[in-house]
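2024-03-11 09:14:02 INFO receiving multi-entity request
2024-03-11 09:14:02 INFO entity count = two
2024-03-11 09:14:03 INFO echoing inputs for audit
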Amino acid sequence: MITQLTRNERQLAILISLVIAIVGLMLGLAGRDDPIGLHGALICATGILVIALVGKGYFAPEPSDERLTRYYDDPSKAGIVLAMVWVVFALAIGDWVAWQLVYPDLTFGQGWSSFGRLRPVHTTGVIFGFGGNGLIATSFYVLQRTSRARLPDQVSPWFVLIGYNLFCVIAVTGYMMGITQSKEYAEPEWYADIWLVVVWVTYLLIYLRTLARRKEPHIYVSNWYYMAFILVVAMLHIVNNLAVPVSLGSAKSYSLFSGVQDAMTEWWYGHNAVAFFLTSGFLGMMYYFLPMRAGRPIFSYRLSIISFWGITFFYMWAGSHHLHYTALPQWVQTLGMTFSLMLLIPSWASAGNALLTLNGAWHKVRDDATLRFMMVAAVFYGLTTFEGSFMAIRSVNSLSHYTDWTIGHVHAGALGWVAMITFGSIYSLVPWLWKREAMYSAALVEAHFWFALAGTVVYVFAMWNSGIIQGLMWRTYNESGTLAYSFIDSLVAMHPYYIARAFGGLLFLIGGCIGAYNIWMTIRVPGAATSKSGDLPVPRPGAVLTPQPAE
Amino acid sequence: MSIFGFHYKLERKAIGLVLGIIVVASIGGLVEIAPLFTIHQTVEDAPDMRLYTPLELAGRNIYIREGCYACHSQMIRTLRDEVDRYGPYSLAVESKYDHPMLWGSKRTGPDLARIGDKYSDQWQVAHLNNPRDVVPVSVMPAYGWLLTTELRTDDLPLHLKAQRKVGVPYTDEMVENAALDAYGQSNPDAPQAEGVAKRYGKATNVRPFDGLPGRLTEMDALVAYLQVLGHLTDAATRPIAQAGGGK
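2024-03-11 09:21:47 INFO inference complete, emitting structure
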């Protein structure tokens, strides 16, 4: 991969890594009495490692200008491999903590392994590690194809990919050491947050620079979604993470907001992390890979416009439905509920658009597990958004809030929608990127599909049951007008469902491992090399080399 | 020109899309969040509201570090069964000094907004040390190391200063004495104990929370925090006319 970089790019990479290593060293020295010191060392080590890697290939001959006639896919390849590493790791952690709720002594008496510290390791690992890498990898691929232009340079995509994964590693190792802001889905502390802003701005600039070079007059719908994902996540991240650190040598910071304002900001962030990370980004994926795999054009251009702007506008109002019946003023709760209900329209417009695109290709859905992954994802997307609007109704929320029903809902979305669309997209993309005819084993894709679907269904049904039972037990009164059940009674009643949930999670994890193996073998085993015809950028005027038309 | 005709032009401009996304996505947050800072009734007045002592603040940070919020809420909703089970519903003012708030979103364990003084210190210590010693069917992790880990106090003045920067009214005297006050609060017989009640109010709990006077452990801090939950102000238990918002 280093050989693909020009001499100037190698120098730039070393320079950036040097700056990062020095910043890490300073952080490590300032925080030598604090857990932040270890993270300083980690950042410094990452910088040195990249310098060593680039330095090793520094004197290799420079690539020819012929590279400019092809798309730049190395970062996408690395992103897919990283996504699969993260998903196996984070699903395993998730299943471990699920078993901890069945056998609480599975923490083995250690601090780092207790439920409270591992739970954000699981959520960050799947959302940001797996989901984020999947989004970065696919967005670079889709951006280039739909713009018919190459990425603007060969350093910034690596900066984004490596920098983003450094953020994820800082985050999960931090939780295990006890470094957390406690804000759900925004747990990383101030220095990791600042670093993510730098990475994210670079990511946005790659997008804008590539679009500026595009040879297609129109920006494809996938890119609207990827751009909404990048832009709005930046807005949410910056506002929600405003905080004052205890000192520059301390990992700890105090949130700028408190109490009710902090709660509203957190759930404005939290719900829209679902919207713009877990929905917009993955809709971008769906709008490219589903029609490509099905060989059908998107059903309706107009539906895609309505759903895009509907999602971008309505979602930002919906966060307050996480705070029904709390100390948040009622007018904000009511607005949140109202917009959550309206959100069903653009959500189902997207889900419907995806499913109707498959009209005329249902025989492919039957035969091709990859396309079936994406079809099931669209179905779960429709189901989950319906359930979400339903749970946002105040009277429903009075039962569902604080219970496992929420956990079931989240996993219907995360496993059924996000993971399934990502696996479907990755299975489409891996043969294209590595120039293979097909995946190493179609049977293993099929096996993965059924493990994933079975795991999701078992998980979600277990949590629906436990959540509704919990909610009902908490509010049941006996004839004398007192509460019928103690809290502990409800906990005991959860036991069988917690076993079922952990089993469902295990099935999903097995599926993920099969997928990782299949992808690895597709990469390693040389197959019949093919490349998609015409998969080339339109040459830029003034490019040094006049490229030949696609073979 | 139809709306789709307009969009047909808009989607040819990257900057147009960027600006459109930013504007459309900003409206909801501006309408829902900004007024919470300006409308006075959002947070009730509670003149008796106390601050967390340095020891309680350190305990709160341990609560955050261990991720207790993942399974315990601190927000009693305005529902009859919640009030019957946990006590008066939570008011906004009660988490006025909570940077960040710990309202939580899930009750794998019970709500803790009013857990203070419901159980003895001995029960809390035994329960944190190994929950199954006192609640056999509990699924909570054991936190055995809290009792054996000394509490770090040297950076407490910095913590109070940072809290002051985000709006918590700690005085200079409180900042200067933060480390001593933390020690004093869990060692009632030590000379450092006198200043604690003077600075933080007579209602402050001053006692050896972990049952080991002379030592200041993380258990002291966490139990001190748990025992003050729901007791920073009486606003929630006062008649509504007095506790109501505004002037």
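2024-03-11 09:21:48 INFO post-check: Chain B touches chain A through 90 residues (CB under 8 Å).
2024-03-11 09:21:48 INFO post-check: Chain B has twelve helices and no strands.
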